Amino acid sequence: xxxxxxxxxxxxxxxxxxxxxxxxxxxxxxxxxxxxxxxxxxxxxxxxxxxxxxxxxxxxxxxxxxxxxxxxxxxxxxxxxxxxxxxxxxxxxxxxxxxxxxxxxxxxxxxxxxxxxxxxxxxxxxxxxxxxxxxxxxxxxxxxxxxxxxxxxxxxxxxxxxxxxxxxxxxxxxxxxxxxxxxxxxxxxxxxxxxxxxxxxxxxxxxxxxxxxxxxxxxxxxx
Length: 223
Description:
alpha/beta, Rossmann fold, 8-stranded mixed sheet, 8 strands, 32% helix, 21% strand, disordered C terminus
């Protein structure tokens, strides 16, 4: 398919962010596939029980899959493919861009930094659940990521009750929307979609409003 874009997502917590982004892109009229390579099937388990061994699933016109061979990705008929992994894999994927997500745990930050330094392409880094009154942003980025903060493209999402409660609720019930997430989270999602799709401002905000209310207008390849 022409103009197909493949984006990688590495690190945790990511599953809610991935599902929100897929919903927004779907409302922009794109066919979206999310492939979950995480060890505990973080994204897929929001919809199906891990013991069910379901490898394909469709919800609100977004397709979800697991256990697809990485070598087959380029032949898939989608406009956007999200590849989620919580551990590095040997097989290289031709990403159009990479999102690296981490909370403030030392081990998570160090793994994120290692992954960023190994990748040569475009990267956006997202720190989640940041406590601005307790920690220094520049110190965290410099000390644990060991990357040049003047070059790295990054977003900071501060710790917020609604962000967290929506994330946890998603592990118990299907995604129904995210109307009350924080402004920082909202602007991060909008910025990520702009980075991937470059939609017009009017189209982007309309797609976001539909997604935050749990609405979808796109269509699934699996239908």
